Amino acid sequence: MTNPVVNMKIKDGKNIKIELFPDQAPESVKNFISLINKGFYSNTAFLRVENDKLIQGGCPENNGTGVLGYSIKSECKDNGVNNNLKFTRGTIGYGRFEHNAESCHFFIVTQDTPQLNDKFAAFGRVIDGIDEVDRISKVKTELDVFLHRAIEKVYIENMTVNTFGVIYDSPNKLKGLSKEETLIKWNYTMEERKKTGYKVV
């Protein structure tokens, strides 16, 4: 079976192609495909950029706090899933506050990032257009406690996916965080990381 391939069209930029790995992270892949097919990612921005480290997008409100009303299982070894994908350069994974809280926020690392291995759900890898990912990772940013927000936002025009004739069901949906719960966790995370100086990467 041929793995699904995503084409991410960047507004005023180049395309990025990503191979997905349903054998390693089936729920993550099904969720990503489902959102793509709904046009969810069109006109969303890469709101977080850690220069030359990672780019993160997928928020429906383009501010990091948007929610879908559901989440999916964290498909990583720290959550009991035998996912062997490592966060090498070009790997795509889901962002989250805690296990089983993934929904739509995703990131792509531009360098090998072993500290994320087995802790976050990796589900694909860039196979063409890594130079465009690198370009996005160099935009101007401003520090927001523990992450850097892009000043020059780069937008995804649209995404499409070729499943090579394979039909992927909807993901198994879990109870997601509400908008209020997300804001509470966001503010708590910010306060805790102010105290510790902790950074994800």
From TrEMBL:
Matching Pfam families: Pro_isomerase
Superkingdom, natural source: Bacteria
Gene3D superfamilies assigned to the protein according to its UniProt record, in alphabetical order: Cyclophilin-like
GO molecular function, one term: isomerase activity
Signal peptide location: none
E.C. designation(s): 5.2.1.8
All copies of domain PPIase cyclophilin-type, residue ranges: 15-161
Stated family: Belongs to the cyclophilin-type PPIase family.
Function field: PPIases accelerate the folding of proteins. It catalyzes the cis-trans isomerization of proline imidic peptide bonds in oligopeptides.
PANTHER family: PEPTIDYL-PROLYL CIS-TRANS ISOMERASE-RELATED, PEPTIDYLPROLYL ISOMERASE DOMAIN AND WD REPEAT-CONTAINING PROTEIN 1
Protein name stated in the entry: Peptidyl-prolyl cis-trans isomerase
Species per Swiss-Prot/TrEMBL record: Paraclostridium tenue
